[in-house]
Amino acid sequence: MPFLGQDWRSPGWSWTKTEHGWKRIVFYGHELEDNNREIDLKELCSGNNENLFVGDVCELATTKRKKDFYNNNTKSQSLNRLDFSSAIQDLRRFNYVAKLFQLIARSQLTSLSGAAQKNYFNILEKIVRKVLEDHYNPRLVKELLQDLSSTLNNLTVHVGRCVLVGNVNIWLCRLETILKWQQQLNNLQIPKQMCDGMSFNDLPLYMQNKILYKLSDAYDIINLGQATPTLHILSENRTLWKRLCHFHFSDKQFCRNLVLTKSDNVDWKLMYFTLQKHYPMKEQYGDTLHFCKHCSILFWKDCGHPCTANDPDSCLMPISPQHFIDLFKF
């Protein structure tokens, strides 16, 4: 179960940290009560029995609507409770949320309820706006929008519009919005920053090289190498690409896809892009969702949660974006 609560469909409890420890937030009026209460015989025989039954029917109808709401909006509530909307403002969590939305765009659009769709596109709009304003990681968001556009085109043209939940005109409007976002990102111009202080080029070569070794994305290394001739030489270092290959792939995968140069040396840069086509790369995020096996609850690692286990760290399990989606495949 992905969440701890009174019902397996519940998104879990909300907690707040106080000076006396963690306390659970109680939202009065949100709890569903059993409305099958007993009716006293005197009440039944009194002259107010008509109002009594009308009131009971109204209570039962209200309860049913509440239960249907909770049952049909599990994913939508999860997006709200885990606060993905605010998470994109944190650079440590931005890539995680963007990757999660990319996976949803590839394979989970047809399973989203109306409320989940609304939350999905509202958060997606905030992601695009952040990139346009802060110029942060436009390449990742471009890939997300491209996958989303391709999936929608395939579903609305080739597969059939009936597989999508909701009015088809709404989906066509969303597709037009996605195309507008793509144009805005393609026209994005990152201004050159003017500063009088020390720049990256002023750093010693060993420090520039050390920064390159900290990067785990090959495209970041290539883009940084295009800045100056010196960085280009550093970015072509065989040892750098060898380290990158060993970071993302195993030795067994190397043996199956060995790429040699004319002098029988391993071309590690070409090896990396060859392996990338056949095997998934290691994912790395500044902050990730974690699952507590003792409490059965999801939370951001940096936020923590009030675990009651003797050894809380032994109960934690990191949740990748794909694993997060798998949690909802009941």
Keywords:
330 residues; mainly alpha; 15 helices; 5 strands; globular; disordered N terminus; ubl conjugation pathway; FBX25/32; nucleus; F-box-like_dom_sf
Provide structural commentary.
- Substrate-recognition component of the SCF (SKP1-CUL1-F-box protein)-type E3 ubiquitin ligase complex. May play a role in accumulation of expanded polyglutamine (polyQ) protein huntingtin (HTT).
- Pathway: Protein modification; protein ubiquitination.
- Keywords: Nucleus, Ubl conjugation pathway.
- It is found in: Nucleus.
- It is a single chain.
- The protein is mainly alpha-helical.
- Among the domains are: 62 residues, no CATH class; 39 residues, no CATH class.
- It has 15 helices and five strands.
- Strands 4-3-5 form a three-stranded antiparallel beta sheet. A two-stranded antiparallel sheet has the order 1-2.
- Helix 3 runs parallel beside helix 6, helix 10 runs antiparallel to helix 11 and helix 12 runs parallel beside helix 14.
- The longest helix is centred in the first third of the chain and has 24 residues.
- It is globular.
- The N terminus is likely disordered.
